[in-house]
């Protein structure tokens, strides 16, 4: 694919920008990306992700830490721009966290819940509340109330 700006060189960078809900996407060569100042990150010797991680400490020192699940090193993650597995986030948290915060603004996922999870959460909350009331009724030796609560709990669980 040719660069959208100069139409001469092969595009090596896909630049996407969203402003006020309007997205713009451009395929750029590294020279045009550098000229547009999105490029301090895109030089031939270093890649975009490596530049992001560069700011999170020193300039990508080789390190002995290796993911116990997939065998990735932080150097590989920075070079490839891909985290090897979920365990990598735990092992390299101190190095990944600053970059993730810079990219996304936060490190916790805040978003929509899967369909039906709200109802499950409400049901779990109701069950917890009923079980607490049941324990209190038994403690007070109010067995009629405890039996009603027990039946209601069974109805929700079944």
- Globally, the shape reads elongated
Distance between the termini: 58 Å
Return the structural class.
Answer: mainly alpha
Radius of gyration: 27 Å
> Quick check: average pLDDT?
79
Biggest sheet strand order reads 1-2
Oligomeric grouping of the chains: single chain
**String of helices and strands:** EEHHHHHHH
Helix coverage percent? 40-55%
Biggest beta sheet attributes? 2 strands, antiparallel
What is the beta-strand fraction? 5-15%
| Unreliable spans | 39-51, 54-63
The overall strand count is 2
Helical run tally: 7
Summarize the structure in words.
With 158 residues, the chain is mostly helical. The protein contains seven helices and two strands, in the order ββααααααα. The chain has a two-stranded antiparallel sheet with strand order 1-2. It starts with 12 loop residues before the first strand and ends with a helix.
Can I get a quick summary?
By secondary structure, the chain is mainly α.
Question: Topology of this protein?
Answer:
Blueprint: E1 13-19, E2 22-28, H1 30-35, H2 48-54, H3 74-80, H4 86-91, H5 93-104, H6 117-139, H7 143-157
Antiparallel strand pairs: 1-2
Which terms would index this structure?
158 residues, 7 helices, 9% strand
């Amino acid at each position: 694919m040719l660069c959208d700006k100069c139409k001469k060189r092969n595009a090596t960078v896909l630049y996407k920008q969203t402003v006020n809900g309007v997205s713009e996407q451009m395929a750029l060569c590294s020279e045009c990306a550098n000229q547009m100042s999105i490029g301090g990150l895109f030089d031939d010797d270093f890649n975009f992700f490596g530049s992001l991680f560069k700011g999170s400490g020193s300039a990508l020192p080789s390190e002995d830490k290796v993911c116990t699940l997939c065998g990735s090193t932080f150097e590989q993650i920075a070079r490839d721009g891909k985290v090897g597995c979920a365990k990598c986030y735990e092992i390299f948290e101190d190095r990944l966290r600053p970059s993730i915060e810079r990219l996304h603004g936060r490190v916790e996922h805040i978003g929509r819940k899967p369909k039906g999870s709200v109802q499950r959460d409400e049901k779990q909350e109701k069950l917890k509340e009923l079980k607490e009331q049941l324990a209190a009724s038994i403690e007070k030796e109010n067995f009629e109330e405890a039996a009603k609560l027990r039946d209601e709990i069974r109805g929700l669980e079944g």
